[in-house]
Amino acid sequence: MNDHLEIAVYGKGGIGKSTVSANISAALAEAGTDVLQIGCDPKHDSTRQLMHGSVIPTVLEVLRDKGKESA
After folding, report:
1. Residue 23 is part of which domain span?
2. Euclidean distance between CA atoms 60 and 65, whole angstroms
3. What are the CA-CA distances from residue 37 to residues 14, 29, 71 (Å)?
4. What is the DSSP letter of 14?
C-alpha cells in the first residue's frame, strides 16, 4: 500500500499561501519525500519560488503548444 500525505492550503488572496506552499514542498523534498505541488494560480506564484524565479509552463500551456506542433 502506498502511504501518502495530502496538504491543502487555501484562503483569501495576499495572505502568503504561495510562500507557505513552496516552503512546505521544499522542506519535504529536502527530507527525501517525493512531492507534487499543484497550484491553481495563473501567475505561477507557488511554483516560481521553487524554481528560483524560472517560470514553469502550466499544463494547459504545454497541451496548447503540443497541439500546435502536431497540427
Report:
1. 17-70
2. 9
3. 19, 11, 31
4. T
pTM of the model: 0.65
Burial label for 46, CB within 10 Å (0-12, 13-18, 19+), is buried
Cell numbers 506564484 label which residue?
45
Could you report the average pLDDT of every consecutive run of 10 residues in the chain (71 residues)?
Answer: 82 86 91 85 68 77 79 53
Q: Please tell me the total count of domains within the chain.
A: 1
Record the cell numbers describing residue 3, joined without a space: 502511504
Does a structural domain hold residue 10? no
Q: What's the chain's length in residues? A: 71
Q: What is the DSSP string of 38-59?
A: ----TT-HHHHTTTTTPPPPPH
Helix (H, G, I), strand (E, B) or coil at 18: helix
Judge whether 21 lies within some domain: yes
